[in-house]
Amino acid sequence: MGPLDIKRVMAALPHRYPMLLVDRVEELVIDQRITAIKAVSMNEEFFQGHFPGRPIMPGVLQVEALAQAAGVLAVESLGLAGSGKLVYFMSIDGVKFRKPVEPGVLLKLEVEFVQKRSRVCKFAGKATLNGEVATECEFTAMIADPPSE
């Protein structure tokens, strides 16, 4: 599957500003992998306090961006778009932060399925800057029904 614009990303994910951390999808191979982009801008609210004079994207948000890319992969692969189903973190393993992510970069998010079941999926992901790994981890997510009102 080719590129997905922000409208298609927003159709797959429930996240909205300021927590939507995937700006576009460059490539999505159903049941296999996704390559997405997060444009890191100085306008991000977290840069006001992390850190004044030395803005760095928090590591937890880098992992969240990878998880959101995985969410798009899972929703598209499992045919869940428009179903209201949510993709929740269950575990995060082996996280390594190798390079600081500063404003003004395009953070490339690469995630692949390690294991896929109907309700639980395992992923391996890495975030890169110009081909250099900034963050890498493995994580597990659960597909859940939307909250009842």
Automatic annotation (TrEMBL):
One of its GO terms (cellular component) is membrane. It is found in: Cytoplasm. It is an enzyme of class 4 (lyase). The active site is at residue 50. GO terms for molecular function: (3R)-hydroxyacyl-[acyl-carrier-protein] dehydratase activity. SUPFAM superfamilies: Thioesterase/thiol ester dehydrase-isomerase. The keyword Cell membrane does not apply. Its main location: cytoplasm. Its EC number is 4.2.1.59. CDD domains: FabZ. Gene3D superfamilies: Hotdog Thioesterase (3.10.129.10). It catalyses: a (3R)-hydroxyacyl-[ACP] = a (2E)-enoyl-[ACP] + H2O. GO terms for biological process: fatty acid biosynthetic process; lipid A biosynthetic process. Coiled coil: none annotated. Keywords: Cytoplasm, Lipid A biosynthesis, Lipid biosynthesis, Lipid metabolism, Lyase. Belongs to the thioester dehydratase family. FabZ subfamily. Involved in unsaturated fatty acids biosynthesis. Catalyzes the dehydration of short chain beta-hydroxyacyl-ACPs and long chain saturated and unsaturated beta-hydroxyacyl-ACPs. This is 3-hydroxyacyl-[acyl-carrier-protein] dehydratase FabZ. It comes from Sphingomonas panacisoli. The lineage of its organism: Bacteria, Pseudomonadati, Pseudomonadota, Alphaproteobacteria, Sphingomonadales. The gene is fabZ.
